[in-house]
């Protein structure tokens, strides 16, 4: 993406996007060995 939007780069086309998605880039969290999730919806355990 040449000019990604602010915040999460998927928020313009995400059906579950929230206000925070357009403001903050989510941090990547390892949910399983070598499997990462970067989404404000994911809370982790």
What's the short version?
By secondary structure, this protein is mainly beta.
Task: Give a verbal description of the structure.
This protein is 0% helix and 16% strand. By secondary structure, the chain is an all-beta fold. It has one domain (1-45). The model has no long low-confidence stretch (mean pLDDT 90).
Spell out the blueprint of helices and strands:
Elements: E1 29-32, E2 35-37
Antiparallel strand pairs: 1-2
Task: Please name the defining characteristics of this protein.
mainly beta; two-stranded antiparallel ribbon; 0% helix; 45 residues; 16% strand
Beta-strand share of residues: 15-25%
Rounded average pLDDT: 90
Low-confidence stretches: none
Distance between the termini: 31 Å
Radius of gyration: 11 Å
Query: What can be said about the biggest beta sheet?
Result: 2 strands, antiparallel
Shape: globular
The chain-level structural class is: mainly beta
H/E series: EE
Q: How many distinct helices?
A: 0
């Amino acid at each position: 993406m040449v000019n990604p939007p602010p915040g999460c780069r998927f928020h313009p086309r995400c059906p579950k996007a929230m206000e925070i998605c357009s403001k903050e880039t989510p941090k990547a969290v390892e949910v399983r060995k070598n499997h990462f999730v970067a989404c404000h919806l994911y809370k982790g355990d």
